[in-house]
Amino acid sequence: MTAPDPRTIAVLAAAGFPVDVLTDEQLQVFGSLSEEELALLLDIKARLDEVEPEVQAHGTVAGGALF
Q1: Domain that residue 59 falls in
Q2: String of DSSP letters for the chain
Q3: How many folded domains does the chain comprise?
Q4: In a domain, 16, yes or no
Q5: Are 13 and 19 in contact (CB under 8 A)?
Q6: Is residue 28 a contact partner of residue 5, using CB atoms and an 8 Å limit?
Q7: What does each of the 67 residues of the chain score in pLDDT, given as a tens digit?
Q8: What pTM was computed for the model?
Q9: Cα 39 from Cα 65, distance rounded (Å)
Q10: Burial environment of residue 32 by CB neighbours within 10 A (0 to 12, 13 to 18, 19 or more)
Q11: 63 burial via Cβ count (<10 Å: 0-12, 13-18, 19+)
């Protein structure tokens, strides 16, 4: 297993992803995202953040990694 790209992890952290609580396996997945995948994930998170009060209650059920 290769180490996750620290630049990708830094971008995710700056966007508000809770990278400090992710497992090594989760960091590996996030750290191996392509530029296109990272851009899509950041776009989805930004749109979810815009409607946060409406979506926040579903964070536990839907997978807190995105929220």
Answers
A1: 6-66
A2: -PPP-HHHHHHHHHTT--GGGS-HHHHHHHHT--HHHHHHHHHHHHHHHHTHHHHGGGHHHH-GGG-
A3: 1
A4: yes
A5: yes
A6: no
A7: 678 899 999 999 999 999 999 999 999 999 999 999 999 999 999 998 888 765 555 555 445 555 4
A8: 0.71
A9: 16
A10: middle
A11: exposed
The token pair at 59 is: 């964070």
If you search the block for the tokens 């749109």, which residue do you land on? 47
Structure-block tokens of residue 7: 């630049």
45 lies in some domain: yes
Whether residue 1 is contained in a domain is answered as no
Place of tokens 């990694």: 65
Structural tokens at position 50: 């815009």
